[in-house]
Amino acid sequence: MFDVALSSAGSYISLATSFDGAFSPDHIIDGKPDSFWLTTGLFPQEFILSFASLANISTVRIHSYNLKNLHVMSSTENKPTNFTKLTSKELESTDESLQSELIDIPSGTSAVHLRFIIESGYDHFVAVYRVSVDGSLAHQ
User: Fold this and answer.
1) Is the full-model pTM beyond 0.90?
2) Pick from 18, 5, 14, 51: nearest CA to 121
């Protein structure tokens, strides 16, 4: 098993609802601890993480700041469509420190795409530093 969400593993962000060149959504999967995607001041916000191929997922972890309510969905389609809800989670406020949250997903989950919907935040802006997905790619 390895982090199948890294851009170096062939993953990419296929959709993000906000974009700033200095805080690109690609920063979520670049593996650098000091880069992040910054949302605009409106909610909901979302991004879709697309894998190189079908991924068998063991765990999902999100590293963020000011994120409050999150929904995670999956799709096994070639294109990012027909999503199924995996889970919803309310994260605790961590004041001025980074949130690192393990997201509970059903055992045996496979996906080509994961959709993360940020329903609300503890402030007007949310920063997502990283999403890590431990798993394996079914085929490449």
Assistant:
1) yes
2) 18
CA distance readout (Å), 130 to 24, 32, 34, 83: 12, 8, 9, 21
Q: Which two tokens stand for residue 16?
A: 């993000």
How far apart, in whole angstroms, are the C-alpha atoms of residue 67 and residue 140?
33
Q: Give residue-wise pLDDT tens across range 2-45.
A: 999 999 999 999 999 999 889 999 999 999 999 999 998 899 99
